[in-house]
Specification:
The structure holds 3 protein chains of 3 kinds. The longest helix of chain A is centred in the first third of the chain and has 33 residues, at 6-38. By secondary structure, chain A is α+β, with helices and mostly antiparallel strands. Chain A is 55% helix and 12% strand. Chain A folds into 2 domains: 47-171, no CATH class; 178-399, MetI-like (MetI-like fold). By secondary structure, chain B is an alpha/beta fold. In chain B, 36% of the residues lie in helices and 27% in strands. Chain B has helices at residues 43-50, 80-86, 101-111, 117-130, 134-137, 150-162, 180-193, 206-212, 230-235, 240-246, and strands at 3-14, 17-28, 32-36, 60-68, 71-72, 87-90, 168-172, 198-202, 215-220, 223-229. In chain B, strands 6-7-8-3-9-10 form a 6-stranded mixed sheet, with helices on both faces. Chain B has a 4-stranded antiparallel sheet with strand order 2-1-4-5, with helices on one face. In chain B, a hairpin with a 2-residue loop joins β9 (215-220) and β10. In chain B, α3 (101-111) runs parallel beside α6. Chain B starts with a strand and ends in a 5-residue tail after the last helix. Chain C is mainly α. Chain C folds into 2 domains: 1-59; 86-313, MetI-like (MetI-like fold). Chain C contains 12 helices and 2 strands; from the N terminus they run ααββαααααααααα. Chain C has helices at 15-59, 68-73, 87-118, 121-136, 139-161, 171-195, 199-207, 212-223, 225-241, 244-250, 268-273, 282-313; strands spanning 78-79, 83-84. In chain C, a hairpin with a 3-residue loop joins β1 (78-79) and β2 (83-84). Classes of the chains: A alpha+beta, B alpha/beta, C mainly alpha. The interface between A and C is large, with 85 and 84 residues.
Chain lengths: 404, 251, 317
């Protein structure tokens, strides 16, 4: 009988278990971190608001509070930090903005309130309707002034004391990601519109038509090489080629969603080619043979028989590409830029969700909370896309179980 | 004759399906015992029980016991790993490791903690000699084992098992993947090995069993039908079933 | 003459049909070929346009030309008016990637062993999903995690050890972030390779009296060597090219090389991504030059590692 080494085995086993544990810990840490920091800001308001706040300077032209009106009724469900003005029918509360500064926000305003619609000092023709969510910065009364620093309670008190309001400056909030959300959506559509046809047609050529000669081997390896290129290099190429292209052909001012989509299209092209090829390979030969036997030519067979059967694979390719597009950051920083826009135009700059995260983290004061909120959205999207890809391939394989 | 294995009331199941029914017999030392029978009759399954390789098949469970020199190998305090160092196995398809010939044979001893080069050299050379392959490979011990022919690879696997200095060698259809010349070389080898080791060989080739074995057990549908010294089984089988199989009426 | 539906003459039923069909096929074939050639030539476009922009700093600025040799060997990133040196940046990049691989390769390979050999069927799927999820997390999120958490941890570790950091922005943070990012790559490729190892040799090992753990380490892992190494090479490529996450934790040191992992560091990619102000001028164009250097570094490391892979893997196959 020979001796056996038990301690070495235990060491190896524990090292293995530890390593597996580590991977799980990393994933959980990232998710927990992102949720802790981001869930505070996550709301519908975040999704639909502009990023850049609008500042208004307003006045009440009628100038005097009509004291003949009965006082407004106090709402019954006020919270701790909400304060109600009987004279003006407006509820103010203390809150924090997306950067953590203390602000006073309108939480309710009665339609009949004298403050409901006020005149824009910068544009005599314009009136502005006060809405829930607006932040009041300063109010200048006939007998003094009050700012957001004094707090909501003080502001309401002063409102009740005052006779009329000379000027009210407020901001319609910001810190929303509507612009970036829209931009991401537009980028996805544009990119797929460019890359899908190119990718599918290339895959068809490589798979159905190309013979095994040197030239085609070279073509294939050139396309394979594209997968190893880091995204920032694609970004440089976008800045060097597509931005000037967009400027000269579409007359844009520097980077645009067009140059961004062109760059993204090149990034996802290898993904689409590969996934489509895999889908084409699985289409059983008997289908093609039946088509030829009926007298169809190669074009008809390819486009009417083979391609439709490869659709699930093309769907997978699309989903994978969408995942790549929404996750891409470095390339777009070069191919478009980092300016966050609220109005989305194909000919203008804009940020995808990922680039929006970069921009808010790159500022003087990194906005970790906003970045984490967007991260939550991205993670959910990525998860959904991954699951969809798995479902699609599962169904796809089942379809061909018999025929293979 | 010394008894090496005593199989008592052994029933084995793969999940719901019963593969071995009430096996009862003994294996004797320094003899070659052959298991014969049609495909799927359970002979390989029984063979794998002797070195507890069935432990690696999750659905496998059993009743009864198998004694190895008076100790039930399935006892709670029995050590399957130690058992395998004494009961070696050669598989149907040669499975040398992707290493040098030397390292293949030295693997087992190294696993047990032997590090001294001189000691290992001795063990390796002795094993290769006993497996009748040393002369063919002595100049290329550092070459890859995968470069050998099928027959050579199988003899290498036998050498690998011998290097452990086992008491028993289990052979699971060792020549079914080989050509006739390689087959006969290995049959000669097995006959030589009988002197030092107890050998159990599963074979679907009856002529092979008749040629080399001392005892033959005939299996059918998971039962051991007949177990006799080989000459007797092949010349005067007791049961008709046995006779039918031997004369080739089925299987 | 009678005409059939397909526009042929019945006396020559197939002739016209064949010609028209053939013509369409020929055109379609040619069209598809063109598209494919276009796709394949993208890589040339990339090289050409980046090179075009990247050469400018050395020849297009007249007096303000940057000197190529000081660019490639310099220890200071920028000095007015036209001194750019990335010599130390290349060294930094190689250092952080080296350490990142040093950490993530063993962990990745062992995790793969765990998933493919040590966990029974239903449960190993869970871990595989975990790894696949990690693989699909966008780099910006790793960057945010790095900037918000890893840097704080490194800062804490530094004060424990009595060292200084710039708020955690350091080479160590870069190493940790990169390690997290390439871990799933290495793991997934290793899982595939280990799964492909022939079960027969594992059984052979265990029949000789080896434990399962011993078998996995002495037989299975070596047999999966080439696939595992391929995964590591992939990881190295990814680490060299990672820009977003690295830029958020590096600190972008001005001079170097930065050998103390607690100091800020500067990599090729962080140099390209940080400090972007204008989209014209020397400071912008030099980033394209850095891009060229990055491509070359990736190419060379790929070739070198593949050469090593060939030499090591050849022996016993």
């Amino acid at each position: 009988m020979y001796r056996r080494k038990r301690t070495a085995d235990t060491f190896r086993k524990s090292a293995t278990y530890l390593s597996a544990l580590l991977s799980s810990v990393v994933l959980i840490a990232i998710i927990v971190f992102v949720i802790i920091n981001g869930s505070g800001l996550l709301s519908i308001k975040l999704l639909v608001s502009d990023y850049h706040p609008h500042n208004y300077s307003l006045e009440d032209k009628t100038n005097k509070l009509d004291r003949s009106l009965p006082p407004f009724e106090r709402p019954s469900n006020l919270n701790e930090n909400e304060y109600f003005s009987y004279d003006y029918g407006i509820t103010l509360k203390d809150s924090k903005d997306s950067e953590g500064k203390s602000v006073v926000v309108i939480s309710k305003i009665d339609k009949r309130s004298p403050l409901y619609r006020m005149d824009d000092k910068s544009d005599p023709q314009n009136t502005v309707q006060l809405k829930t969510g607006f932040e009041i910065n300063t109010i200048i009364f006939d007998n003094g002034s009050v700012t957001s620093r004094n707090g909501a309670e003080m502001m309401v008190l002063r409102l009740e004391e005052a006779n009329y309001i000379e000027t009210m400056s407020l901001s319609s909030g910001g810190g929303g990601i509507r612009g970036s959300l829209l931009t991401t959506f537009v980028l996805i559509i544009l990119t797929l519109a460019i890359a899908l046809p190119f990718g599918i047609l290339t895959a068809i050529y490589l798979n159905e038509i190309a013979t095994k000669n040197k030239f085609n081997e070279i073509l294939r390896s050139l396309i394979d090489m594209l997968t190893g290129i880091p995204s920032i290099i694609y970004g440089l190429m976008g800045a060097a080629l597509f931005v000037p292209f967009s400027m000269s052909v579409f007359k844009t001012q520097g980077g645009s969603l067009i140059s961004g989509s062109l760059t993204l299209a090149i990034i996802v092209l290898p993904v689409i080619i590969k996934a489509t090829e895999e889908a084409l390979i699985v289409v059983p030969r008997p289908y093609k043979e039946a088509s030829y036997a009926l007298g169809a030519n190669m074009t008809q067979t390819t486009f009417k028989v083979v391609l439709p059967n490869a659709l699930p694979g093309i769907l997978s390719a699309t989903l994978l590409s969408i995942g790549r597009i929404i996750g891409e950051s470095a390339a777009l920083i070069y191919a478009i830029g980092t300016a966050i826009k609220d109005d989305v135009s194909v000919f203008d700059k804009g940020t995808s969700l990922a680039v929006h995260m970069w921009t808010v983290m790159a500022g003087e004061v990194p906005n970790l909370e906003m970045a984490s909120s967007i991260a939550i959205i991205l993670l959910v999207l990525v998860l959904v896309l991954n699951i969809s890809v798995k479902l699609v391939s599962h169904k796809f394989l089942k379809k061909y179980e018999g025929a293979l | 004759m010394e008894t090496v294995f005593k199989i008592k009331d052994f029933n084995l199941f793969y999940g719901e399906k019963q593969a071995l029914h009430n096996i009862n017999f003994s294996i004797y030392a320094n003899k070659i015992t052959a298991f014969i029978g049609p495909s799927g009759c359970g002979k390989s399954t029984l063979l794998r029980s002797f070195n507890r390789m069935n432990d690696f098949i999750p659905s496998c469970h059993f009743e009864g016991n198998i004694n190895y020199y008076d100790k039930n190998i399935f006892d709670k305090d029995s050590d399957p790993i130690g058992l395998r160092t004494e009961v070696g196995m050669v598989f149907q398809k040669p499975n040398p490791f992707p290493m040098s010939i030397y390292d293949n044979v030295a693997y087992g001893p190294r696993c047990q903690g032997i590090k001294d080069k001189k000691q290992l050299d001795e063990i390796v050379i002795s094993a290769l000699e006993q497996a009748a392959i040393y002369e063919e490979v002595k100049d290329r011990l550092k070459d890859s084992a995968l470069a050998l022919s099928g027959g050579q690879q199988q003899r290498l696997c036998i050498a690998r098992a011998i290097a452990m200095k086992p008491k028993v060698i289990l052979l699971d259809e060792p020549t079914s993947a080989l050509d006739p010349i390689a087959t006969s070389k290995i049959e000669d080898l097995i006959l030589e090995l009988k002197e030092k080791y107890t050998i159990i060989i599963v074979t679907h080739n009856m002529q092979q069993a008749a040629r080399i074995s001392d005892f033959t057990a005939f299996f059918l549908l998971g039962e051991m039908v007949e177990y006799k010294p080989t000459e007797i089984l092949f010349s005067h089988p007791e049961l008709k079933k046995t006779e039918d199989y031997i004369t080739g009426r089925f299987g | 003459m009678e005409h059939s539906k397909f526009g042929t003459t019945l006396s020559n039923p197939n002739k016209v049909n064949k010609t028209k069909s053939r013509k369409i096929d020929k055109m379609v074939r040619a069209g598809l070929r063109l598209v494919t050639i276009l796709s394949a030539s993208i890589i040339f476009f990339i090289i050409f346009f980046i090179a075009q922009r990247g050469i400018k700093p050395f020849i297009g600025y007249g007096e303000l030309n940057v000197s190529l040799s000081s660019f490639l060997t310099g220890n200071t990133y920028f000095q007015l008016p036209n001194v750019y040196g990335i010599g130390f940046v290349i060294v930094n990049t190689l250092i952080v990637v080296f350490f990142a691989v040093l950490i993530s390769a063993p962990i990745g390979v062992l995790t793969a062993l765990f998933i493919s050999r040590m966990m029974p069927k239903p449960f190993n799927g869970v871990f595989l999903v975990i790894v696949e999820m990690l693989a699909s997390i966008p780099s910006i999120i790793y960057g945010v995690f790095g900037a918000g958490f890893i840097t704080k941890m490194v800062n804490g570790l530094a004060s424990l050890l009595g060292m200084q950091t710039a708020g955690g922005l350091s080479g160590l943070s870069v190493v940790l972030v990169l390690a997290m990012m390439i871990l799933p790559t290495i793991t997934l490729m290793s899982v595939t390779s280990i799964n492909a190892v022939n079960r027969d040799i594992e059984l052979g090992s265990m029949a000789l009296g080896a434990t399962d753990t011993y078998t996995f380490f002495k037989i299975s892992l070596p047999a999966a060597k080439s696939g595992i190494f391929a995964g590591i090479i992939l990881g190295v490529g990814r680490a060299l090219g990672e820009a977003t996450a690295v830029s958020m934790v590096a600190g972008n040191a001005g001079t170097g090389p930065n050998l103390n992992l607690f100091d800020t560091t500067r990599t090729l990619t962080s140099s390209m991504l940080l400090g972007l102000k204008e989209t014209t001028g020397l400071d912008y164009d030099i980033r394209f030059s850095i891009g060229i250097v990055l491509i070359i570094v990736i190419l060379i490391s790929n070739m070198a590692l593949n050469y090593v892979k060939k030499k090591v893997g050849r022996k016993y196959v």
